[in-house]
Amino acid sequence: TKRNNTTTDTMSSSHQHHHNNNPSHSNVHFESYYRHQLFSNDEKAFQSLLQTLSKPLPLTFRITKNLHTECTINALKRIIESEQQRLHVRTISFLNDPRTFQIDNIAVNNDNGGGNENDLKTKHPNVHQFLVRANEGGDLSRQELVSMIPVKLLDVKPSHLVLDSCASPGSKTSQILEVMLSKNASGAVVANDASLQRANLLTHRCYRLEAAAKNLVVVNHDAQTLPLELENTFDRILCDVPCSGDGTLRKSTDLWKKWSNSSGVELHSIQVNVATRALRLLKYDDGGGRLVYSTCSLNPLENEAVVVELLQRSRGAIKLVDCSKMLPDLKRLPGLTKWSVQDLKNGRWYDTYDSYLKDNNNNRAGQKSKIRKSMFANTNNHKHNLDRCFRIHPDLNDTGGFFVAVFEKMKPLPTEMIDIDAKKEQKLSRTTNANTKKWASAKIAPVFCVKTDTEFKAVIKRIKAKYGFDARKKEENGGVEIITRNNTDVVPKRLYCLSKGAKLILDKCSRNQQEQQKLRILACGLCCFERQAVNKGLKSQSDDTDCEFRFTQTGCELFQDSISKQVVRVSPKELESMLARQQQKLLTTSKNAPLCIDDKTKKKVLSECQRGCVILAVRAKSSGSGNKRKLVEEEVAAVSPVTIACWFPPSKKSRSDGINDIDDDVTLTLMCSKSEGEVRLERLRELGKLKLVN
Fold first, then answer.
1. Helix (H) or strand (E) holding 462
2. Active site amino acids
């Protein structure tokens, strides 16, 4: 309270406060601070900023770039047309991405009245349902426009090892993971968050991208003390650091009441520490690595001051990258070269650290000040190319506020910079130990690579015998490794597939002699196989006649181009019927469509499949009908626009040779969850409307 009162005294009486219809969207201390800090010579520009900040932020989202992109965009367009121009939906030109959309008359958070998300649910239910369903299915991601910019500038390739050092809530991590949906993606994305709870939410969000989960490793560390076993490892690092967040005032309107000039001072050192540790983990060889530093803050203490401190500490090991030619339609301001620091006690402004020290030598309380020398602008700022930084103020592009700086690491960091980082880690050791205890009490299962001994070789061999491929030799996807989270001597309950890059990360942080895992892994890889024996009791380890593992839904989709056995091709209508029954919905196609599999499919299952897991794939597109039907596309393995894992239970009849009787009953149970089935049902129906299946 005292700090707020003294700060008010520093306001010039010649300026009138900004007025808007909602007084909760203003803060006199905020206005005083930024009028002095950013707009001391341009009141008109400052009023433009305040007016934009008082307006609600339009709802924006991004369609995932995957195999179903065309279907998702087509469904969106059809729903928008049905709204008869009641919704103003458009793509965003400055991002140069036709998959990014904005609904102008629906706001993320609008307490001024008018269109908001509740209106979307009540007045535009079809649009709301589409957004929810596509988001849950991984075909769409809700994300603020400026939040998409750092990943655009990161320039990730499918072979890269990428670290998102402060990843929650996960929108940027998901954006990076989309690159890993490429067939040849051998890279990895390590998503870190200091909070175990937030890391769990992050995991849930990222796993919606399904196939890309094989490239994902979610870890729980303080970003200031990420394991140094990963030093000089990552090709790309996103350092979207914790910040005061005043660039998000349009979305997070509660921040108006909470805003304080102390936030930038309190966070500055943490931001420098997080970025310093990230720079240690960044590669300098093989052409050098790229790190993107970003905040959703307008404060130069959290932005340019951090950039300058990193550049000065690095002594030429890193440089700012000129990104002026990237996103040319994006309106931006160059980074500042001059700024001031406000005393938290008396509200006075200082341009230099020396002048601040001079006034604060006789500190009555005798307490150490939170203000650091690195927070101040210096006379050499013009040499640091700070104009290469991006300042994105909300009124420039009708967005939130953001700051971005792109670094390139060209050689190892100097010893002095590493020593500072080591001393900081020592200071944080008490917190680190407390977090380690908290992690231990959470009892998260450790990660183990499947052993190469005889027992686990037999597991892989049985999978190959039943499904016709070696799960470890998926070269089309850059190769995969098999891991489990169970280190007992029995056959594991689940097998996870991991990209080569993700396995490399695990190997670098393998368990040490004290049996303490260096990397606190919450989730990694894609669960592709689960143990479910067809017959009671497990086969002996030496028995190769039966496989006790079935595919998960995401597993059969990942390996659909490799599976050569246990695959049955069905018509789109037949598969739609099965998925619709699961959803307890009426068919939208012919009234004569079968409710279950037809006789032709039944014969295929009985003659071509063993009991257990069966993969249903939509038959390839064809011409003609009946006996004259001819395929116009080649059918490869289980490749299909929609592929579903099913369970073909043991026969009630007992036969010693295990062969199916042609008069056996065939009941297939869908093994996807109801939510997974709903997503795939909608995809299948959309494919029919696009005439991509018949």
1. helix 454-467
2. 296
